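Box S1 | Example of a co-folding query
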Amino acid sequence: MPQSDKAVPAAGNIAAHFAPGPVLLMGEPGAGKGTQAHALMGIWQVPQISTGDILRALRNDPVQAQTPLGQLTASLLSTGKLLPDEHVNALVAHRLALTDTNRGFILDGFPRTLGQAEWLDHHLTEVPEPDGQMRLPVVAVNIHVSYNQLLRRITGRRNCPVCKNIYNVYSHPPKFEGKCDLDGALLEQRVDDTEAVMEERMRAYRAQTTPVIEHYRACGRFLELDGELPESDLTARILAEIDRFRAAGAERESL
Ligand code: AMP
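Box S1 (continued) | Returned holo structure for adenosine monophosphate
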């Protein structure tokens, strides 16, 4: 993704007086959901909940990996196929029960099927925040990027296993090949970040996630943004639009 000098607010400046509520980041694999979630998390001081990260942690946990769910997770992750809704929904329910989600959270990679979206809508209206308050309505943000750009981003992506910094060998390489600039750790490539697995991930996305986008578009609390904008410009757009949505909601509530 191109870089820009455009200033986005510093972490914590917004956090004290703004509750973003539930924000869904949607987009094809490589659209930049993780990068944007990281930036927004720092500014809003709310957690990023990535189902991909939760599933990778489950697969890598020596105890969980021995369970039937651990084994199913490992095999589906390596092929790019989706896990069954009931397993992923249960993992998300467990995470949403933690008190750090009270002011809001950023869901990254969930919901990916209509079944997950319907479960989430129901869960957020039926199950209060851990502090007992009702949650704000969801705003869904769809980040759109062209296929060729996605391919470069996915096959070029390298991750630091220590600080989680994300590099790209084409557009944002580390200073020393294969090593993290921040802590020197050896960079890793996800097993599913290959062209062959990407094809399957895109197929799953088109078949199962496109209806989810239409579901949220129809609800009205939906944004479609250009994922080829410079990273910080895109962050600034998301901040402004979520602010606008929440301000409009507050006006309605005070009528
Ligand atoms: P991600 O890191 O979001 O690209 O997810 C990596 C992989 O985890 C996907 O290709 C799926 O195999 C699995 N996965 C992540 N999120 C979900 C979800 N919401 N539903 C089903 N499978 C998922």
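DSSP finds eight helices and seven strands in the chain. The chain has one domain: 19-243.
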